[in-house]
Amino acid sequence: MRIAVIFGGKSAEHEVSLQSAKNIIDAIDKNKYELVLIGIDKDGKWFLNEKSTFLLNENNPKSIQLNKSQEEIAIVPKGDSNQLITQSTLTAKGHIDVAFPVIHGPYGEEGSIQGLLKLANIPCVGADILGSAIGMDKDVMKRLLRDAGLPVPKFLVMERSFPEGHRYERIIDLLGKPLFVKPANLGSSVGINKVRNQKEFEEAIKIAFRYSNKILAEEFIQGREIECSVLGNENPIASVPGEIIVQTEFYSYEAKYIDEHGAILSIPAKLPERTTKAIQAYAIKVFRVMCCQGMARVDFFLRGKDEIIVNEINTIPGFTKISMYPRLWEASGISYTELIDRLIQLAVERHGIEHGFSTSLE
Fold first, then answer.
1. Which residues, in sequence order, are bridge partners of residue 156?
2. Which residues, including other chains, have CB under 8 Å from residue 77's CB and lie 6 or more apart?
3. Fold (topology level) of 222-354
């Protein structure tokens, strides 16, 4: 089976995607799958890469880069064969059986890649267009979760086009302080700042608006940070929960991907059995409310002994060597290689069902 791993992309999470792709490529069963490596640079150009040369500085998260000295390609809708073509000569480069997008953030995690693959009739690992889109938009996500009766932090939305809604006094009255300001459509803690006063608030807004036209102010939750992985389509299962014990002020981008000492991962989390089961049940409910398939990681706060608060869902969770999603499944009895295999099979299963839908009015 020919698997296209698609990574990089036009996102502030570009470098995280490169790390995730490297780990997936290292772990996938080479006896079972033939790999096609498709790297997308920050300008949106697509390259067909060789496994031995697709990354520069691959072992240094601070300076890791996509090697762009490869062949520019495109994916085109061509039935079941030759969906890959070179841009310079229009030469066919063969077919793709399944695509595994590992693009975090905009132009990959929010439904755009999923839509392209659907038009090209290529099975896609992970959530479909709808689940990807609503999972990426923290505003829409939290409103849907709240309307489904799930506990979420108090939050307010600020839009670039409506500066009247940015008043510090109004937001502090509603959310208290400290609070967090974050872009609505990014993960990996990019553009997030903790705010304690008006000066920090104004600076945090400027930073968040660099990444999105819509940003969130969110209440600060004093509690433990718990994460749970979900796997499946119609009948998803949840992993054991894990806890992030942050060694810095909050779980920042640096703590997640650069500083090996930025956080301690406690897997499985030290929780009472009833709390573990409640978190797993919440994770599956969030997965279903968000219309997800394949995979997701659901993040929680645990306030006090047993108050569970849903923070967010990630439909393309990190796959770096220290990422929670694969590590939680390893602790649950599913190895990294087996996990990748299951994700590919789930994509094929879902595509087969959708491919069987009628296209006729008769």
1. 217
2. 83, 119, 120, 121
3. D-amino Acid Aminotransferase; Chain A, domain 1 (3.30.470)
